[in-house]
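Reading group handout, session on sequence-to-structure problems. Before we discuss, look at one worked example. The prompt was deliberately terse, the way you'd type it at a terminal:

> structure Toprim domain-containing protein

The input record follows.
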Amino acid sequence: MDIEMIRGIPIEEFLSRLGHEPVRRHGDECWYLSPCREERTPSFHVNTRKGVWHDFGTGHGGDIFTLAGELSGSDGFMAQARFIAGVYGGTIPEYAGQKREKESVRTEKRKEPSRFEEVVCGPLRCNALLGYLKGRGIPEEIARAECEEIRFRLYGKRYFAVGFRNMGGGYELRTRFMKWCLPPKDISLIRNGSLTCNLFEGFIDFLSWKVLGISRGEDYLVLNSVSLLERSFTYLDNYGKIRCYLDNDDAGRRTLAVLRKRYGDRIDDCSDLYAGCKDLNEYLESNFPPEQ
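And the output record:
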């Protein structure tokens, strides 16, 4: 993958690869919940025709490279390019970007590693991460049982995050300030030998469902992105009942429509439980606020 190939990647495709889908779309305009921070109202705007983005919550914006810099915490052009290539499983040729970076490229290559480095997975113990989940209504015992603590280095900087493992061996990563994925991106399936599967878009909703105590020992499938829906069919085909806890937005409704077309009356839309809320976690936070 070279620089010109990266430059041609649509920002919305790059965001989808990272697990972010637009909350609403109108023509060339897409609005997202910011991939750089936690928010309830979408303030992250992408113009698909111009190939630019703007986060109205921070005032930052630019092209796909500056977005990669925002997500990876790097100001260097080549580091941003490597981050994008890493998301797509590729690498940047040694000669790429020399005209733009000139002599500074060699220095940057020496000091900045590529992609995720020094990844360590372990029990979730960090108080900051447990506090983040508690603020979203997830108590410590459920957080520790279902999640891990992931520590890693990315382009010279150290990070730690709540990790939720997927079937490909990657992790969905969350902190109070960011939403990433440690590749590969994939769905998550938790089997308990049931003929009923509960389907969620993201793992925070799955954790919220566990908190609400409506578990009956069934199976759980977390898409980790609605763009991975087709990947779930291999597993969903085997269930007699699929209970859907999808977001109350356009993406959630489109996903439900696809599922109904494929599975008919095997689909049970459970969104009435959290009617008036965007998702199951918002319902949990609104009706059962965490103790301070």
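Points for discussion. First: DSSP finds twelve helices and 15 strands in the chain. Second: The two ends are 49 Å apart (CA to CA).
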